[in-house]
UniProtKB/TrEMBL annotation:
This is Ephrin type-A receptor 6. Residues 637-898 form the Protein kinase domain. Residues 929-989 form the SAM domain. The active site is at residue 762. SUPFAM superfamilies: Fibronectin type III, Galactose-binding domain-like, Growth factor receptor domain, Protein kinase-like (PK-like), SAM/Pointed domain. ATP binds at residues 643-651, 669. Residues 337-447, 448-543 form the Fibronectin type-III domain.
Length: 1000
């Protein structure tokens, strides 16, 4: 048939044309075999059939089957038909039976060429350009007789727009690809049939396939091959199965789309405990690693003191002697019971026995440390001990103690008690080893009779009481020293202080005025302490009592004043008689008036010390400058360098020549040009103030230049600049004595100022200058002006500009500036000095500083700070300004410390945890107690509640919740709120302090 066609003289399909077909097929095979269709399941591909296809043609001479070999010797099956010249063509070509397999819908892809009738010369109207595609479903797989009527038409297939394309001017046929969908197919298989009705066709390949969503892994789940629905708008929901060693987190799901694509992944699987994910699988954790939870996290190394020998361990086992408490997470290191408490000490009086100990050296690696105290009462034979009866009371309780102390009440006199204290933590119960204890045996008559009888009050002032007593007559052992214990009568249970003395007398200072105190004294011999003397109750004096105490001093002052006045009268008479210096007298009278006005403001002048005069009281400020400052001829000044910038202009260093004297180094403050009168007055105000002072610890004014430009203030030069930056630059370089020397200098300067009635208002390390001999001098004077100049000064709610961190609460709250508020600032300067220029209250905000001061918090001791100095600071920071030390007290206290350097050896770090301050420096008792804190928040009425419930330190209070506050008996909601809110601040502060490495 084909041969006929090829030999056709009309040349419809000539030989060369046949060759061209073959070339195209080779090309196509490459195309076919290279294309991958992972989501297609091929049911038939004529290009892949190696043997005969065995398709049937009806009539026999209609379609022609041609099989040629490609260059790989594989057959190329082609069917051709071309009876274009003959009318009424009806040529059928039928495939073999094709199994449907899982398909519901099949796709038939045809590749063919079709000659367009116009390209064939002399063809008549019989030429067609389409053919028809049919199918028939059947379960019968063996060949059945072909009956065209049994076939269902799928479609009429036409070539696409251009049938042919040109190749080098020659006409070649274009390969068409057409795909048709058939379905749903329900029988086991089907036949395809091609009907030619008079076209010239070469059917190059037939591919039949169906689509599926192929097996896949997604989110650690596998999804099987899935056949899409026939209805292309609905998806098949497929549930995935977790891979080995994985478990469902949320049901893993995918949806199979009509085109064989997986859509919408939902849910997932995760690797089980002991397994970790790697490249879509779950691998076992290696020995030494574990994974305690399912999830896509990695295996972790065993925590300290634990191990795992096997693969895929969900947990690591604890090493011998180490344990994990029930609630410990598997990530936590294994821990062990703590070592016993250390250094048990006691303090006993007639009614209570206070036991205290240091925490164990080894906490076992845990934080849940508690203590149990067991009491045994022993007779003469220490082996015959019995448990103490229920009469004994432990405050707060005998077991589960959080703090390392307990108070024992209601014990019997003349008995021996042994207290065994054990430390416990969350794994103590798990250990089978006996728990080591720290034991102490206490005899309740250990001191024997009191060696001290009557304790007398010799005198009392506002803040001090002097006591004395009879030394014991013929004691069996010599008395080494005496211990005096005292506390406010009202706050008996809250806190007490103690001090020691070798002599049978003591002066106790730092007491509150008009307050009743309880004192009792015991003696210490080489055999230990005696019992305490009975309690003695004495009251401190009020203001009048101090006056009485000072009577002697007053007498001296009066005598001096009378003498001075007499001298003044004589001199005045002399001047009057000589009729000279009228102006001087007037000026003096005027300043005396001012001075009088000043006294009326509350300042009582010190005899022999001038009184400060506020330059603002002068109508003409220039007059004030000239009264207090020397005018310097600018030719005597040589400016050398600019050393800083002040608010009004540059600060320079230079030299000042004075005729007949050596040239001296000076600092020169200049007033920059373009100033207004007010600025000039403000600038010179500082000179008017400084010029009134003459003290080695106050910066000395050399003079002013006001009559020429620039206006200048010339002061002595301080080689080391300001104290704060000097200390920061030399962090840790000085001995404590050197630091105390600096503080003593500042205190002495401040004493001078306060004696003159001058209130500095901006005392801070930045306003102290240091010379080459480490002498510190107070500088920066100017009253309110200095605050404008000070970068630390912030506006308060009342509108004032105040350096909050350095300023006393009453000065912040209602601008009550006084020497007492300067004393507060001095305490802060002490803290700055001892911490080598650390910023007070670190980075806390001003608001938080105010709040925390209000709630009783005070700066902790800087590292390495002697107790005595921190106590002095705390004394300066008393809320009640009248209780703060006067600068004269401060100077003499520091002098004492300098004279007795061993008093500076006890550092705050050394005494932390001890119940009371050491006897060496008793003058300044610590006042940050629960009592003070409650006073500060006006909740003093609850002091007993806190004590009774065992909250004895601010540390323990800081852990309290609102329930705890309720439980101890604070029933009013407003009070609960106030206390809890203050506890929160307290907690923050303690945390802050701990982070900084300081301790309260
Ligand atoms: N900066 C400000 N005043 C100073 C002074 N008197 N000496 C050195 N530096 C200073």
């Amino acid at each position: 048939m084909v041969g006929q066609l090829l030999g056709n003289p009309v040349g419809i399909l000539d030989m060369s044309c046949g060759v061209k077909f073959s070339l195209i097929f080779v090309l196509l095979r490459v195309l076919f075999t290279d294309s991958s269709h992972s989501n297609q399941v091929v049911l038939l591909d004529t290009t892949a059939v190696l043997g005969e296809l065995g398709w049937k043609t009806y009539p026999m001479n209609g379609w022609d089957a041609i099989t040629e070999m490609d260059e790989h010797n594989r057959p190329i099956h082609t069917f051709q038909v071309c009876h274009v010249m003959e009318p009424n063509q009806n040529n059928w070509l039928r495939s073999n039976w094709i199994s449907r397999e899982a398909a519901q819908k099949i796709y038939v892809e045809l590749r063919f060429t079709l000659r367009d009738c116009n390209s064939i010369p002399w063809v008549s109207g019989t030429c067609k350009e389409t053919f028809n595609l049919f199918y028939m479903e059947t379960d019968e797989s063996h060949a059945i007789k072909f009956k065209p009527g049994q076939y269902t038409k799928i479609d009429t297939i036409a070539a696409d727009e251009s049938f042919t394309q040109m190749d080098l001017g020659d006409r070649i046929l274009k390969l068409n690809t057409e795909v048709r969908e058939v379905g749903p197919i329900t029988k086991k298989g089907f036949y395809l049939a091609f009907q030619d009705i008079g076209a010239c066709i070469a059917l190059v390949s037939v591919r039949v396939y169906y689509k599926k969503c192929p097996f896949t892994f997604r989110n650690l789940a596998t999804f099987p091959d899935t056949i899409p629905r026939v209805d292309s708008s609905s998806l098949v929901e497929v549930r995935g199965a977790c891979v080995k060693n994985a478990e469902e987190r949320d049901t893993p799901k995918l949806y199979c789309g009509a085109d064989g694509d997986w859509l919408v992944p939902l849910g997932r699987c995760v690797c089980s405990v002991g397994y970790e994910e790697l490249d879509g699988t779950c691998l076992a954790c290696r020995p030494g690693f574990y994974k305690a939870f399912s999830g896509n996290i990695k295996c972790s190394k065993c925590p300290p003191h634990s191990f795992s020998y096997e693969e895929s361990s969900p947990l690591c086992h604890c090493e011998k002697g180490f344990f994990r408490a029930e609630k410990d997470p598997p990530t936590m290191a294994c821990t062990r019971p703590p070592s016993p408490p250390r250094n048990v000490i006691f303090n006993i009086n007639e009614t209570s026995l206070f036991l205290e100990w240091s925490p164990p050296s080894d906490t076992g690696g845990r934080k849940d440390l508690t203590y149990n105290v067991l009491c045994k009462k022993c007779g003469a034979d220490p082996r015959q001990c019995e448990l103490c009866g229920g009469d004994l009371r432990f405050v707060p309780r005998p077991q589960g103690l959080i703090n390392a102390s307990v108070t024992v009440l209601d014990f019997t006199a003349h008995a021996n008690y042994t207290f065994e204290i054990e430390s416990l933590n969350g794994v103590s119960e798990l250990s089978s080893f006996p728990r080591p204890v720290a034991a102490i045996t206490i005899s309740t008559d250990q001191g024997g009779p009191s060696l001290v009888g009557m304790v007398r009050k010799d005198w009392a002032s506002q803040n001090s009481i002097a006591l004395s007593w009879q030394e014991p007559e013929q004691p069996t052992l010599p008395v080494l020293d005496y211990e005096i214990k005292y506390y406010e009568k009202e706050h008996e249970q809250l806190s007490y202080s103690s001090t020691r003395t070798k002599a049978p007398s003591v002066i106790i200072t730092g007491l509150k005025p008009s307050t009743r105190y309880i004192f009792h004294v015991r003696a210490r011999t080489s055999a230990g302490y005696s019992s305490y003397s009975p309690k003695f109750e004495y009251e401190t004096g009020d203001e009048t009592s101090d006056m009485a105490a000072d009577q002697g001093q007053v007498l001296v002052i009066v005598t001096a004043a009378v003498g001075g006045f007499t001298l003044l009268v004589i001199l005045t008479l002399f001047f009057l008689i000589t009729g000279r210096c009228q102006w001087y007298i007037k000026a003096k009278m005027k300043s005396e008036e001012k001075r009088r006005a000043h006294y009326q403001n509350g300042h009582i002048p010190f005899p022999g010390i001038k009184t400060y005069i506020d330059p603002d009281t002068y109508e003409d400020p220039t007059q004030a400058v000239h009264e207090f400052a020397k005018e310097i001829d600018p030719s005597r000044i040589r400016i050398e360098r600019v050393i800083g910038a002040g608010e009004f202009g540059e600060v320079c260093s230079g030299r000042l020549r004075t005729p007949g004297k050596r040239e001296i180094p000076v600092a020169i403050k200049t007033l920059k040009g373009g100033y207004v009168e007010r600025q000039r007055r403000d600038f010179l105000r500082e000179a008017s103030i400084m010029g009134q002072f003459d003290h080695p610890n106050i910066i000395r004014l050399e003079g002013v230049v006001t009559k020429s430009r620039p206006v200048m203030i010339v002061v002595e030069y301080m080689e080391n600049g300001s104290l704060d930056s000097f200390l920061r630059k030399h962090d840790g370089h000085f001995t404590v004595i050197q630091l105390v020397g600096m503080l003593r200098g500042i205190a002495s300067g401040m004493k001078y100022l306060s004696d003159m009635g001058y209130v500095h208002r901006d005392l801070a390390a930045r306003n102290i200058l240091v010379n080459s001999n480490l002498v510190c001098k107070v500088s920066d004077f100017g009253l309110s002006r200095v605050l404008e100049d000070d970068p630390e000064a912030a506006y308060t709610t009342s509108g004032g500009k105040i350096p909050i961190r350095w300023t006393a609460p009453e000065a912040i709250a209602y601008r009550k500036f006084s020497s007492a508020s300067d004393a507060w600032s001095y305490g802060i300067v002490m803290w700055e000095v001892m911490s080598y220029g650390e910023r007070p209250y670190w980075e806390m905000s001003n608001q938080d500083v105010i709040l925390s001061i209000e709630e009783g918090y005070r700066l902790p001791a800087p590292m390495g700070c002697p107790v005595a100095l921190h106590q002095l600071m705390l004394h300066c920071w008393q809320k009640e300004r009248g209780l703060r030390p006067k600068f004269t007290d401060i100077v003499s206290f520091l002098d004492k410390l300098i004279r007795n350097p061993s008093s500076l050896l006890t550092l705050v770090e050394d005494i932390q945890g001890l119940p009371e301050s050491p006897g060496d420096v008793p003058e300044y008792p610590m006042f940050i107690s629960i009592g003070d804190w409650l006073d500060s928040i006006k909740m003093s009425q609850y002091k007993n509640n806190f004590m009774a419930a065992g909250y004895t330190t601010l540390d323990s209070v800081s852990t309290m919740s609102i329930e705890d506050v309720r439980r101890i008996g604070v029933t009013l909601i407003g009070h609960q709120r106030r206390i809890v809110s203050s506890i929160q601040t307290l907690r923050l502060q303690l945390l802050h302090v701990q982070e900084k490495g300081f301790h309260v």
